[in-house]
Amino acid sequence: MNVQLFIPCFVDQLFPETAFNMVKVLEKLGCNVMYNAEQTCCGQPAYNAGYQDECRTVATKFVKDFKTFDYIVAPSGSCTGFVRNYYGKLFDNSAAHNDVKLLKKNLFEFTEFLTDVLHVTDLGATLNGVATYHDACGALRECHIKEGPRKLLEKVKGLELKEMNDCEVCCGFGGTFAVKFEPISMGMGEQKVHNAVNSGADYLISTDLSCLMHLDGYIRKHGTNIKVMHIADVLASGW
Q: For a tag site, which of 40, 160, 217, 237 has the least CB within 10 Å?
């Protein structure tokens, strides 16, 4: 099975090890993994800021870069959800309409690809400790991903999964929201971290590094005793 990697901007620039761990997992499962080095942003930041024309320019390149019949897999529910749910509006009645339909059909968030396409839940991973899972807005609300990541984490040897209060509530990042409304954003992040700590977890895990980056900022500033991990890093542990 051929798999094209879509690596979002912040993963590429700040958390490349997560991308490498995703490759490690996919190759273990027999996938032929490829990466188009010409890829750039999907356009979500510009769209959310109200710059639709500029977003369309970036998105047009994205559609061309991922014009393929292969599966496309990304370690982000947020970027995956944006392409799926908003590219249709951006390219409605355009020459790229059919290419966008193909792109949306082939694009999957990482955990979704594992559970829904490959039908795998046990990767042979090992991580000792207690974990809690944060439902990132992009994964939950844009991609309707809920049970899959939990099934994957339940199979990790040595890891006990505990639900925290308000696991589906936004962490407060929201892209530019964290900049425009910093006090509200930090308050929401504080609440999320406290709920995670109160669950007794050693690890706060999610599908989206944008959320985890925001939460880790609060954790580091206040010296809170919990570690954030992307689920790809968890699934690549211990083997």
A: 40
